[in-house]
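Sequence in, structure out. Go.
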Amino acid sequence: MLQGHRRTVRKPAGQWRRGPVYVTDARDPSIAAYTAPDADVVPALMKELIDWLNADNGTHLLVRAAMAHLHLVSIHPWADGNGRMSRSLQTLMIAREGVLAPEFSSIEAWLGRPGNTWEYYRELADRGPKYLPDQDVSSWIRFNLTAYHQQAQTVQGRLDRSGRVWGALSEFAESTGLDERVVTALHDVAMAGRVRRSRYEHAEGLSLQQAQRDLRDLTTAQVLEPVGRTRARYYTAGPRFPRPALDIARTPMILRNPYTS
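Output:
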């Protein structure tokens, strides 16, 4: 953790803080929303945390990782960067067990969604204005597990939607006599809004001439529309792009809260 703490000129890294630290209220900087433990007890608290991290008490990995995050951010051992390091520790604990996909090892993407960051700080604020290691933290655990669950829902939803779009495009290609390989280009357009010749060429293992010919034919058929010139050119949906595929791709998914019926 000390090595991972980023060095800054103004605030030394790689060492515990030497003085008090406060988290001020966003609405009034003169009010301390949280006061961290005194600097002289930080080394002992960190040793206790490290001993706990190195011991296996049978608690589920996601719960342990969430608690490690909360313990570290509550101790606030550095003058700056405590939130970043606490989230990094949470991710590291999960990644060390072989879960490397960001969607399942980190809650950063989930926190980036509108409203979730506010809920994150509210959860931390609900822990109280001072360090209280023995308090009820069930809502904090629920918050983190909800984040992981909804990130998993998002991944599953994207895969399901991608498959349904591919199916609709395959039916379109078959009904119009298009080569099945062009579905790759059409799928990019439906899901990402555009496709480039180079991406299509590499995805299907085509020659430059083959990829150009396919995209030119799709443009002539008004399935695609070219935007830009030469190397900067990309293709978007044209007037005759299959509407059902676009409707599927553009329908927002619904995320459920695993703790509500």
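Check: The domain at 158-250 is CATH 1.10.10.10 (Arc Repressor Mutant, subunit A). Strands lie at 22-25, 28-35, 224-227, 234-237.
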